[in-house]
Design goal:
The chain is mainly α and 83 residues long. It has two domains: 30 residues, no CATH class; 52 residues. The chain has two helices and two strands. A two-stranded antiparallel sheet has the order 1-2.
C-alpha cells in the first residue's frame, strides 16, 4: 500500500498531470510483530487443546458416565424387585 504525503484531491490531480513530483512514498508493512505472533500461537494452542478435549469428552467420558449410570440404575432396580 502506498500513501502520498499530501492527502488532497487537488494534489493527486497535480501529480497525475506531472506538475509536481511526488514528495514521499510510504510503504506500509504487513508483517506481524513477534508479540502478535506469540498471541496467534497461544490462540492456536488453546483452540487445539479445546478441540481435542471436546473430542475426548464426547467419545470417552460421556459414554462412560452414561453406561455407569445405566448399570447402577439396573442394579438398583433388580435389588428392589428381589426384596
Amino acid at each position: 500500500m502506498v500513501v502520498l504525503c499530501k492527502n488532497t484531491k487537488a494534489y493527486a490531480f497535480e501529480v497525475l498531470l506531472g506538475k509536481e513530483a511526488i514528495c514521499n512514498f510510504v510503504k506500509i508493512s504487513t508483517m506481524i510483530e513477534f508479540d502478535q505472533y506469540l498471541g496467534f500461537l497461544a490462540f492456536l494452542t488453546i483452540l487445539t487443546i479445546g478441540f481435542w478435549l471436546m473430542i475426548f469428552l464426547i467419545t470417552f467420558v460421556v459414554p462412560f458416565w452414561l453406561t455407569g449410570n445405566l448399570m447402577q440404575w439396573l442394579k438398583e432396580k433388580r435389588q428392589k424387585s428381589k426384596s
